[in-house]
Model the fold of this input.
Amino acid sequence: MLDNLLPLLKDKVGADLMNKVGLDASKTDGALNAASSTVTELLGGKGIDMSTVLNLFSKDDNTPGANDLLGQLGQNYLGKLTGQVGLDAAKANSVKDMVIPAITALLSDKIGGNAGALTGLLGNLGGGGNIADMAKGMLGKLFK
Done:
């Protein structure tokens, strides 16, 4: 099921990244790959609370912790967009403003703040016992 999210993400924002932001196909792919690695690195870090991740990937209003996590995600993603992908700051901000909400919306639709859904999806794909291992496994499959 999560294998279908990357095509959905490309469908949701790919054309806008090219038409509205002016990225070519290569930069669009680079931006989506940068999103994958940013999310993987952030969720794979120490001290990530599962309830914060659940809140972020739900339809509920974000808690302060989820807002902090989202802010970290955005800042780390901007760094990759300007550093690895080679976008200027204005384009990087435009890309971030399209891609981050799309990722959270797609994952929210699949997880819906449900711990069982998150654990089941992450566990089935990650094979790991903790949230970091599970997130790495999920995101590796998500962005192939």
User: Anything to note?
Assistant: The helical segments are 5-19, 25-43, 50-56, 64-83, 89-111, 115-126, 131-142. Residues 89-111 form the longest helix (23 residues). The mean pLDDT is 80.
